[in-house]
Amino acid sequence: MIRTTTIGLIAALVAPLALTAQQPADTTRPAPPPPPAVVSIPVDFSGVLYANFQYQGAAGASKSQNKFDLERAYLTFRMPAGDHASIRITADVFQQQTAPNDAYYKGWVVRAKYAYLQYEYLKTADWTAVARGGLIHTVVIDHEEQFWPRWISQTAFERAGFFSSADGGVATLVTLPNKFGEFYATITNGPGYTSRETDRFKDYSARLSITPLSGSSNKVIKTFAVTGWTYRGAIASSFVNGGAGQVGAIGSHLPRTRSGVFVGVRDPRLSAGFDWATRQDGSETGLNTVASPRAEVDSTRQLISGFAYIKPFQLLSDQSAFPLGLIGRWDRYKPDTGSDGYISTVIGGLTLDLNKRSALSLDYQEQTPKNGVIAATTKTYFLHMVANF
Fold first, then answer.
1. Pairing relation of β-strands 44-56 and 358-370?
2. Beta strand spans in the chain (E)
3. Range of the domain at 122
4. 34 belongs to a structural domain
5. In which element (H, E) is residue 21 found?
6. DSSP assignment, residue 105?
7. What is the pLDDT, as a whole number, of residue 7?
8. Rounded to the nearest 10 degrees, how much is the dihedral formed by the CA atoms of 195, 198, 201, 204?
9. Is residue 30 part of a domain?
10. Which residues contact 294 (CB under 8 A, 6 or more apart)?
11. Does residue 61 form part of some domain?
């Protein structure tokens, strides 16, 4: 009796399962929707970090002053912006030094150095050309930084205050056929990327860089470049709005022009260059009143600079990977060509490549005024570091 009852219960439980297994599959039920498409926007992120330890060696109260300094970090983002277009944004992370007595201004801040839209309007087998708008490179500083290592010091143009390395405006870059060079032209505000526009005048500049030996089989000689550039700018008068007691508003501009020539070679084993440049700046004297009339005074300045960055072991043998380098530079800047005074800048030292993206430099930098020029004398020992990522 118990056995019969047990068999009956098992049959009652198994029968529905067997009947279900024999039923045909329900093909009328709709398939589940596909997962949502994932939209991927390619972003090219890169950057560079500059840091140093410096020790002051000049006589005076600042002698033996020393510090560790994270000079700055550049964070660059590149991404497409539709057909034939792309954007670049480079954030400049640096320590604020504007108001050292105000705690609000101390610490690290971020600002845009480059931020522009680039549109490729010409591309053939021989020619390419792009247009840019936004915060763009100025005429020559970025070009020379391909020859001179910026992580050790600013280029001679920027150090002497010719103009900023970036500014707001528009530009075009045309690449010549057969790697023969490039043409770059800009229209910019003038004050540079660290300032807003201050007047109605614009600055116009152009650069032509030629590599006449690009077909050479010698890896160093083929990089030989000759560059000529010009910069025609203007700034407003200090009395542009007039004022109480003045004879009237001054609507004319003061000149702000620069031009120069650069020749150089750039190879991982040997990079060298020579600069000659001149600049003219207008200034004003007087108070723009009847008793103290306004007068315009123009000054002409001149810059000569030469540098070399050599990795001697790699230059002597293509098989050598010994990472030691030698670097040297000399600048001669005349604040007024009408006098004999000038400022001499000397840079020299040793470099050591940690790898293909990071390097160290032990160098000495000296600035000395000569023949009566009023300028600070500095003598500084540096341990520089650069890291590209």
1. unpaired
2. 44-56, 66-80, 85-95, 108-123, 128-137, 166-175, 181-188, 203-210, 225-236, 253-266, 270-285, 295-310, 324-334, 342-353, 358-370, 378-388
3. 44-388
4. no
5. helix 2-22
6. G
7. 46
8. -10
9. no
10. 237, 239, 247, 250, 284, 285, 286, 287, 288
11. yes
37 occurs within a structural domain: no
Name the least confident of 26-30, 237-241, 304-308: 26-30
Instruction: With CA atoms as reference, report the closest residue to 119 among 103, 108, 106, 134.
Output: 134
What pTM value is reported for the model? 0.85
Q: If we measure between CA atoms, which residue out of 151, 166, 187, 100 comes closest to residue 327?
A: 151
Distance CA(72)–CA(109), nearest Å, equals 10
The residue type of 66 is N
For the domain that residue 107 is a member of, what is the CATH number? 2.40.160.10
User: Can you read off the two tokens belonging to residue 163?
Assistant: 């103009």
Q: In 3D, which of 91, 87, 73 has the Cα closest to residue 44?
A: 87
pLDDT tens digits, one per residue of 146-169: 999 999 999 999 999 999 999 999
Domain count, the chain: 1
Task: Give CA–CA dist 288/238, Å, rounded.
Answer: 10
